[in-house]
Design brief:
The protein is mostly helical and 285 residues long. The protein has 11 helices and no strands. Belongs to the cyclin family. Cyclin D subfamily. Keywords: Cell cycle, Cell division, Cyclin.
């Protein structure tokens, strides 16, 4: 066996230190990182711009109830499988976009459940490292064969033109938070922002609002819950990468988030359990 001298791997160094500590180099590095992140955000904005916001066709009371029930099922199943919030949000985006192109009759409640299962399954395949078998997506009220779920998945894929790698608000949270000048820890703002996003998905149709709009509103809500139109507009200017942000739309989402947090015991998963309890009480009266 040929002996390979270790010394040959060592190159001759000049007299400069191994780890540069020059502040100018640090500034250059920070500038490059900021530039790259801004470019990444611009890519996200361009990707979300491909899919225009659509006025929701979910207007009737029964359809709103069916969607609300689907939201709760998806969030509950997310916990069972330890899916990320990103996966649940993506599933609901598929759900809302599908219903802007196709309709389901009011007496076919099973079809909404099947749609929920297929949307969550597709989202898990896009986001999760470990994906459950289709046979594991069982519900208390319906049992679907794997072939049936697969056919619904294919229908969703064709209806959405196979555009499944969609942008969600969570992709913007860290970037928007970093732009804020505040003493609040970034992790705390991101965590609260996530809660505000989850707190309104039961009340808004995701196709009517850009992900960047929802993200900006959530970060502002986590930062300050007493803003109005005048303070909101200057704050939006610091999110310079998102030129598409419209103050009126951001303020509308922001207002819904603040109002929702006041009437619920909490945001995020706690909100859904609270809403579910309210519905049960209404049914029993």
């Amino acid at each position: 066996m040929e002996h390979f001298p270790i010394s040959s791997l060592i190159c001759e160094e000049d007299q400069s230190p191994l780890y540069a500590t020059d502040n100018d180099d640090d500034d250059v590095t920070d500038h490059k990182e900021t530039k790259h992140e801004d470019e990444y955000i611009e890519i996200l904005v361009s990707r979300e711009s491909i899919l225009d916001t659509i006025h929701s066709s979910i207007t009737s009371a029964w359809l709103k109830w069916a969607r609300s029930d689907s939201v709760q099922w998806i969030m509950k199943t997310r916990v069972s499988f330890s899916f990320s919030y990103q996966t649940a949000y993506l599933a609901l985006t598929y759900y809302d976009r599908f219903l802007t192109h196709r309709s389901i009759e009011s007496d076919k409640y099973w079809a909404f459940r099947l749609l929920s299962i297929a949307c969550l399954s597709l989202a898990a395949k896009m986001e999760e490292c470990f994906v459950p078998m289709l046979s594991e997506y069982q519900t208390e009220d319906f049992g679907f064969e794997s072939k049936t779920i697969q056919r619904m998945e294919l229908l969703i894929l064709s209806t959405l033109d196979w555009r499944m790698n969609l942008v969600t608000p969570f992709a913007y949270l860290s970037h928007f938070t970093a732009k804020l000048e505040t003493d609040i820890k970034a992790e705390e703002i991101v965590s609260k922002s996530t809660g505000f996003i989850l707190g309104i998905i039961n009340d808004i149709n995701l196709v009517e609002h850009r992900p960047s709009t929802i993200a900006a509103a959530a970060v502002l809500a986590a930062y300050n819950q007493r803003l109005n139109k005048q303070p909101v507009e200057p704050k939006l200017s610091i999110f310079s990468s998102c030129a598409t942000l419209e103050p009126e739309h951001v303020l509308s989402c922001y207002t819904m988030m603040i109002e929702g947090s006041r009437y619920c015991s909490g945001v995020g998963d706690k909100y859904f359990s609270t809403a579910s309890n309210k519905r049960r009480r209404l049914k029993s009266t």
